Here is the input.
Amino acid sequence: MMEWGSWSAFWSMGGNGLFVWGSYAVTFLCVAVELVLVIRRRRDTVRRLLRLRRAAPTGTGARRTTEEIFE
Amino acid sequence: MTTDIKDRSGQGKGLFRFSAPPVFYPLAGRLAPWFAGIAGVLTVIGLYIGFFVAPTDFQQGEVYRVIFIHVPAAWMSMFIYLIMAFWAAVGLVMNTRLSFMMTQALAPTGAIFCFLALWTGALWGKPTWGTYWVWDARLTSQLLLLFLYLGFIALTSAIEDSRRADRAGAIIALVGAINVPIIYFSVQWWNTLHQGASVSLTQAPSMATTMLWGMLVMALAAWAYTIAVALWRVRSIILERERHTDWVKAELDVQESRA
Amino acid sequence: MKPRSKRLLLLGSAGALLIGAVALVLTAFQQNLVFFHTPSEVAEGKAPQERAFRIGGLVEEGSIMREDDGYTVRFAITDTAHVIPVTYRGSLPAMFQEGKGAVVQGILGEDGLFRATELLAKHDENYMPVEAQFALDQAHKAQQTVQY
Here is the structure.
């Protein structure tokens, strides 16, 4: 087990705390941004498609049937 | 050309069922939360090992702990690009649209891991080597990988026609994949500042066991995270590209009733 | 932004990135990605004569000396076959030690002294606890004693 002795030793990382925590902070930031973007992309896609459908409700019928999906 | 993967009723045979977007879409929706949960749990375990079990390094002190995110990010950036190339090849050969959608779903995550490998590497290099960056073979080829990822994303977003975008992206994925073994073997083929591999398939690891385990658990966490995000992202891509089909219209009905 | 302008911007970025990537590959391979030469290569005259280049190797044990001005450092870099003397002024990386790897950039003088303008520490791929290294050192010492 790793014995840190004190919390300040943990944050300091032997004097290189900025480099270590700077790495992990940016990592979690990137993960958070990616998750937000993925969730937003879905929400925006659904909204936009619903809006398009309302604008042209009758449509021209499905261009593809389920069988044609394999093409 | 594709009749051999369909059975008599027109449905895909065996696993090829899942190459149909209407079949894959709900499956991806059911699997994604599981992989997200696994990623979360593994991250907690991996970081615990990395910061509270793994000891101080005799050579680098505490700053080596960047390894628990740097190496998994670097591994994933290479692995994801190879998977992208695989799906691009499958798409070109089997003419399955979903394969190309998968390639595009993976790219942003790969790009982010590639950036993180470079960023964490730079922050690790300054206190150890004495510099944030050098143009040695390892770092240069990793930067090249980031350009390839960004080029892929920009190009596939720019081309309106999805079939042309798929094929243009496939070229970048397949040709760029050559860079991945270059990155991996760069520390053997050329004199580099970046050190050689601590973990390889052919040699015993040159890391203490607890350090190794922390790294491997974080790598698995990154892998599970990638799958979760790619599955979730491909669902949006599928809805967009298959929007004229009956099943998507039905799915939109469901979404609208929930809104 | 208009869809066409957006497409143009994306296409332009893609083009710029790909051109950058190709340029990177070409320039990198032009210099043969020789990040550093070994002391043996330098001794054999294979290193560039008039321009700056890098030497990579181990810092020879007992060779680090600080000059009287308190700022300049002299040491020797070796690959166990050949030794090159180096002089350097500047900050020392924390991991710069005797017996460990280093990479210096500079010019080789006619007197055979390498005047370095940049010094980087190079570490290997071994990671182990402090206690393990201590145990290894002890075992190494014990082995040496037995040989004599």
In short: Chain B touches chain C at residues 55-60, 64, 67, 127-131, 134-137, 140-141, 143-144, 147-148, 150-151, 154-155, 157-160, 172, 186, 190-193, 195-198, 206-208, 211 (CB under 8 Å). The helical segments of chain B are 21-53, 67-94, 97-128, 137-158, 162-176, 179-189, 209-241, 246-258.
